[in-house]
Prior knowledge:
2 copies of one chain form a homodimer. Chain A has helices spanning 2-22, 29-36, 42-46, 50-64, 82-98, 100-115, 117-140, 147-165, 175-186. Chain A has 188 residues and is mainly alpha-helical. In chain A, helix 1 (2-22) packs across helix 2 (29-36), helix 1 packs across helix 4 and helix 4 (50-64) runs antiparallel to helix 6.
Amino acid sequence: MVRNAERRLILADAGVRVLAERGARGLTHRAVDAAAGTPRGTASNYFPSRDDLISALVDRIGERLLPGPDAVSSDGTRAPDRALFADYVRDVVRRLSADPHVSLALFELRLEAARRPSVAATLGAWRQRAFQDDVTFNDASGLPGGPTEIALLHYAIDGLMFDHLTAPLDTGLSVDAAVSALVDRILR
Amino acid sequence: MVRNAERRLILADAGVRVLAERGARGLTHRAVDAAAGTPRGTASNYFPSRDDLISALVDRIGERLLPGPDAVSSDGTRAPDRALFADYVRDVVRRLSADPHVSLALFELRLEAARRPSVAATLGAWRQRAFQDDVTFNDASGLPGGPTEIALLHYAIDGLMFDHLTAPLDTGLSVDAAVSALVDRILR
């Protein structure tokens, strides 16, 4: 069983790499096996359909975006003020920047969602839950920023990461400066 | 010559369609000929290399994003205030929403730019020029918003359009409301 769980993880990580490096159309069971170094047929064994494969990738992307041990603490020792909220947003951006394959894979899947309703359903449900969790978290911890602010920040940070990870504009702003300015202005 | 220019346009529009519908990896000379209904070999005749084809698509995307006759006027009859700037931004969003293939094709090319330096060069130069033009335009017409505000709006509108054209989150905000809130908060 452990063996299976491990192999599942290796295959999912290989899938994320394939998506990031070759785009959604490059994502085939065969490409995943090649990237994972597993015998041909292994990926199809674990994820029989392309939808199963994409579901597994969405789950794995979610895991890789979870806060690590060095993340900003939410243990309640800090006041739930603008500064703490800004630190949370900076934390998310740090995680996205540190693992560019995950962000690129996610952008690829979102474009694929524009073409395939089944991908839109899987990915849409996951993103909607994440958005709702953010809204609930801010509300429960007394942080500033309601649904509107969180929505606007989602859009802005997405656009910033898309720029940063593809062919960035020279706008005179570093990613850090842009994040600070966005939080400062959107959160009012 | 007219015939050639027309055919060039038909091929470029077919290329935009292929990009939007099949992604960057689906963009081949053969797919462009099929989408354009031209004999095989035509696209290669007009755009010998893939880089030539992508260059032509970037140019065509730029043309399709130009303001039409119904755009907000910049003839100097309105005061260069926040309201006029907000109207310009809404105009851009309207053009992007009305021609989703162009926006999707552009996102595909930007992801391709993360993988191919030649695409990054072509696309990067075009986007940098567009950004610089925006900054110069605002400055010359006395509109509010300098490089920082224009950069932040670029990011935020990109993220908003990406969401809107793929599997949109239900954030409780319409595209219009999000644009107004973003302009209002970023432009201070």
